[in-house]
User: Fold this.
Amino acid sequence: MSTPLTLHVFTGQYKPIPYGEVPSWDPAQQATWPATTATLIAGHEHAVLVDALLTRSEGEQLARWVTDSTDAALSHIYITHGHADHFFGAGALLRQFPYARLVSRPETLHEAQQQVEPAMMAAWTAWFDGQFDTAPTVPVEVSADHLDVDGHLLRVLPIGGADGVTATIVHIPDLDAIVSGDIAYNDIHMWLVGSTPHSRREWLSSLDRLEAYAPKTIIAGHRDPAAPDDDARRLLDQSRQYISDFDRLAASADTAGAIVEAMLATYGHFGNPYTLHAAADSQFASPRRDGS
Ligand SMILES: [Zn+2]
Assistant:
């Protein structure tokens, strides 16, 4: 009988960013990037880290935290989806744990590769100039649909669309837990920037697929540091409701400000309001809405 797994969650802080092209945002307020998590699943001998944050400083903190959290050898750093805020911080980890492999599912690799190309690099530089590794290691394909930690199964599963093209999860049956990447959020405004009715439907379907695994615990890729728990029921309900509410308002509201005001009436306690402003403004920037 193998020893039990332990699950540890590192929650980063909200990171200041320039407010950029978001007209509904009050420039007197500090715009921030959503707090992001990394999850360590450790046995006695081996461990797997899920996601690796964004900045150099976050990557260094994470590497120290892994060392403090377990004596097990880190075999893999699994990236849930191909967005920079979940893997650009891996450099410090790969230096500290040179035998660990940075991997992801094949479905995510194209999007991850795009993050290091000039157009996306320019976007990340506008937000985090000088703070991140501009030559980050990009994950390589994991050759199976699971990883193994001391005989315990970690299923790595492509689920569908969320805030990007393809989101994957790590399902840990022995813990009744899922590390959801950006499919479920925990008390943080969801990244609906540039979303469409179609992409929001896809995201809701991804939440349905998550629920089909009947997890008790969901570790969300973006989690308010003060979130009360990681209860799967609560996260699934709030994520579904948030997308549905935004979808309804995006179809009916006349201004971005009206979307923001109505959403804040329900979700005023959520972290990172800047995300909501950017998402609301994006609904009026598309050719479809302004007639251009
Ligand atoms: Zn994210």
About this structure: Confidence is low (pLDDT under 50) at residues 288-292.
